[in-house]
Write a structure and sequence with these properties.
By secondary structure, the chain is α+β, with helices and mostly antiparallel strands. About 50% of the residues lie in helices and about 10% in strands.
């Protein structure tokens, strides 16, 4: 046994010597069932590891291709250094002071240029501003001096004056005052137009004009706050009276309520802010309004505040021509008057498509309406109707509506239509008017 085994054991290493090392990598490693073979394999692997300096714990019985750490984890590539050029740090050290000096020079030149430009223009703007301020002061003074042009009239319209008298004769207890001005021709209708009547809320028209004059003069700003004092709270129309005393409203909001919903409290607040009734009366006289006077705060149910149809038409004509207000304030005033809620008087006599900027007045003894009418055909006219009546007599409303309709139809269809109406065809005219 020993001789045979010894000979076999001595022969095996000799056979392995004829197998190159690369055969191990090419041939599959046999399963280590024989401990002797496994021992020799381990020995040879250890020898190979010693040559390649591979840790023994990473030895695999079956070699396989593995990815390197650089393949699994992508490392940032180091930029290749360029040879023959100065490093960036060195260049920065060299060029830093030069760049800094150049930057300071550019900034200095820029500042000098900007400063010179500003100084050169400031002289021009200063002169222009001074001229603009002088012009503005002149404009504001002209509005406050209130020197309107002469209220020129052309020819009366007898046909319409006759028509007004005929309509009024149907209600003998009513006393109407009427004035109409055709802004295109200057022709007019005057039926007791200069007679002073109780103004009721139509007095709010000149108050509103005076308010916007103060705005144009810079004495009042539209966004300033006005305090509703207890002594200014008035009964009657409007909803400001239901707020707590001390409530504040902007000046513009107060002016809007004064016209749109005919707020009596708002009117009293505007009168106080402008400077009082006497100051307003003085201004009315300067405008050439002979019958327009404020004697008592609103609501003035006794009718002590007065005006006339001609005064109201004259005032609106001056506003329309831009004599009393700037164009901006004029447009704002007319826009407010177009929003008047009560539309039971003059608007009822207008045709489809007509636009009216107006203000009504209504107390027991008087009913009134005055405004500027724009017709679809491009014509514009101003009219004012005030009717003195028995206490709350509703026929005054009908009379104002009929007068408004006669004016509108005449100006829509010129003279021949109404000249034919004033005679035998009166009955036919009334039927057409109702249509």
């Amino acid at each position: 046994m020993s001789n045979n085994q010894t000979s076999k054991n001595s022969d095996r290493p000799r056979r392995l010597k004829f197998t190159p090392i690369q055969d191990y990598r090419l041939k599959p490693v046999p399963t280590p069932t024989n401990p002797i073979i496994g021992q020799h394999i381990d020995h040879r692997i250890i020898q190979q590891e010693n040559k390649t300096k591979t840790p023994p714990d990473r030895v695999r019985t079956k070699p396989r291709k593995t990815k390197s750490l650089a393949t699994v984890v992508s490392l940032p590539k180091q930029p290749a250094k360029k040879r023959g050029k100065t490093p960036a740090s060195a260049r920065k050290n060299i060029s830093g002071p030069l760049i800094y000096f150049l930057r300071l020079s550019i900034v200095g030149i820029g500042i000098a240029a900007i400063t010179g430009t500003v100084l050169s223009h400031s002289t021009k703007y200063t002169a222009a501003d001074a001229q603009a301020e002088s012009t503005n002061e002149t404009v504001q003074k002209s509005f406050l001096q209130n020197q309107p042009q002469e209220f020129s009239l052309s020819e009366s319209i007898p046909v319409l004056e006759t028509k007004v008298e005929e309509l009024a004769s149907q209600w003998p207890k009513l006393e109407p005052g009427v004035f109409l001005l055709d802004l295109d021709t200057g022709n007019y209708v005057d039926v007791r137009g200069s007679t002073a009547f109780s103004a009721a809320s139509s007095i709010k028209i000149p108050i509103l004009v005076a308010f916007f004059q103060e705005v144009d003069a810079g004495n009042i700003t539209l966004d300033e706050m006005l305090t509703m004092k207890p002594e200014l709270i008035a009964k009657g129309s409007g909803n400001m009276q239901y707020q707590e005393p001390g409530t504040e409203f902007t000046a513009l909001e107060t002016a809007i309520k004064t016209i749109v919903i005919s707020d009596n409290t708002g009117t009293n607040m505007l009168v106080e802010r402008i400077g009082g009734a006497e100051k307003l009366n003085q201004r009315f006289r300067e405008w050439g309004l002979t019958a327009t006077v404020i004697r008592n705060p609103l609501p003035d149910l006794e009718g002590t505040n007065t005006t006339s149809p001609k005064d109201l038409v004259k005032l609106l004509a001056m506003v329309n021509r831009g004599e009393l207000l700037t164009l901006r304030s004029r447009d704002r005033l007319l826009d407010i008057m177009k929003k008047t809620k009560t539309r039971t008087l003059l608007p009822q006599g207008l045709g489809k498509g007509a636009i009216i900027a107006h203000k009504t007045g209504d107390i027991g003894s008087v009913l009134a309406d005055a405004g500027i009418v724009d017709m679809p055909n491009g014509k514009r006219y101003i009219t004012a109707v005030i009717v003195k009546r028995p206490h709350n007599d509703s026929t005054a409303r009908t009379l104002i509506q009929q007068i408004s309709k006669a004016f509108y139809q005449y100006l829509e269809n010129p003279k021949p239509t109404l000249e034919e109406k004033s005679g035998e065809n009166n009955d036919e005219v009334e039927i057409n008017n109702e249509q």
